[in-house]
Amino acid sequence: MKNHFLRRLILLALLALAGTPAFAAPVIIGHKGLAAEKLTVASVKAVFLGKKVAWDSGGRVILAVLKGGPVAEDFLKANVEQTASGFNNHWRRLAMTGGGTAPKVFEKEEDLRKFVAETPGAIGFVDSANADASVVVLTPGA
Amino acid sequence: MYGAMKLLTYLSLHARSKGACVVLGACLAAAAHAAIPVGSSNVQIGGFFSQGYLYSSDNNYPTADKGGTWDFREMAFNASTTVGDHLRIGGQVFAQRLGALGADKVVLDWAVLDYNVSPAFGLRLGRVKYPKGLYGEALDLDVVRPYVFLPGAVYSPILRDFSASFDGGMVYGTIEAGRSSFDYKVFYGDIPMSPEKGVAEFYNNSGLYAAPGVAALNMDSVAGGQLTWNTPVSGLKFVYSYSAYRNLATDGPFFAYPPINLHSNFPRFSWNTYSGEYAWNNWVFAAEWQRCGGDINYGAAPLMPTVYDRSGWDGWYAAASRRLNDKFEVGAYYGDLEQRFSARPSSDPVVHQRDTSVSVRYDVNEHLLFKIEAHRIDGVYQTFDTARIPNPAATRQDQTTVFAVKTTLSF
Fold this sequence. Notes:
CATH superfamily of chain B: Porin
Largest interface: A-B, 28 and 41 residues
Number of domains of chain A: 1
CATH architecture of chain A: 3-Layer(aba) Sandwich
Strand content of chain B: over 45%
Number of domains of chain B: 1
CATH class of chain B: Mainly Beta
Order of helices and strands of chain B: HHEEEEEHEEHEEEEEEEEEE
Largest sheet of chain B: 16 strands, antiparallel, barrel
Largest sheet of chain A: 5 strands, mixed
CATH topology of chain B: Porin
Strand order of the largest sheet of chain A: 3-2-4-1-5
CATH topology of chain A: D-Maltodextrin-Binding Protein, domain 2
Radius of gyration of chain B: 21 Å
Number of strands of chain B: 17
Oligomer: heterodimer
């Protein structure tokens, strides 16, 4: 009886997981012109917080971010140490007080990827499953 | 780009009437309705419009709100663009009414040329937001907090138009240090002042000036800096802010004999603010302690010889807020403001102001929010008795309750 109950519980858990919209992991994508750019963990944070506004190889940093959702939450927590809400507040403060140019915000990853692919200097993040050959995946070094 | 800057220039130079502010508000509302963000690829525009209602049970605090007032609103419109890899230019006009203060007059809030050489060094010139404490540069941004009023012990709402920005230059940057980093800002300039500004109430409340009150305020300069330590603990930072005014001076009719001028001067008036903030999951904890003051001399020759005195105050608060979900955020704080250099004990309600506040914020959508807030204020320090904020001694109470509701449309 007890084993039967456990089996049903495990089955339910597996079904619940199967029904959850899964994503692999966020990756940083950039315009193809940024392929030679050397990024570090610190420089990624500086870029997304608006402290680094120009690329070492030349050109202005153009930020593209997702409006919200698990990909944004995961990426921002791992790379900027902020929640999506905290990140939005950070940029509202900068943009409304003369401290920076706010990122382009996208609802859909496909639109963000397309923007990055077409905009020199653009950098953003998407789920790894949505990164294709139109952009470069940028991996920060130590 | 040209159109937006032209609009900013026009509004800041010519639109000083309530009607113009209404037009500006309508523009903001229309823009917000039209699916933001607005602007071409290299121009960003933004802004907000807020309207609130204030009710005070006993004293007029922070402004004339005993029995209730709708004279509580703010609006701003900004535009910015980038030129080349490192240069950004932009500006914002702002108008406010807080009781009899502000009068919906459109002013240039900030306007900067910002040249960011690298993360470690940038230069900002023009009318620059004044860094003081955690939130000094974002005094008006309802969208980034649950509170209607920032804690008055450190962010006096009466001093908003005096503390918002300065004309001059600032260097800034970030220095990486292992798992920590340090943000620095160093600035120099001056703050344009006038008797219409809220700071005049500090002088008018002294009783030394005859009606209509202080007639001229000016300072030689403001200089200061801010150092932020972004600690290795995620979300935890500490900030130290320092600034000082040189020769903060006033003139106006002497109360005993108005044809005679009373002159006052702070050779140096300084602000020291120590701050800490910890953002953890959906919580934000913050605490700040501030000391300000300086030596003052004042006199009305030949009737009153120069008097040498000291003036200033200490303030601190502790605050906690939590975002509950996409719609609701709640917050609370306790703040304590104490007069310095007083012979009275700190238990005397005349020399302290202790504010307990709770707030609830509701986000209708990403552009529209509502807030409701209650304050229980013990003590009457900085509860002024002036023509614009009357609190006659005969009716002033040691305690008062203030309610605030506010809605803000931002884009």
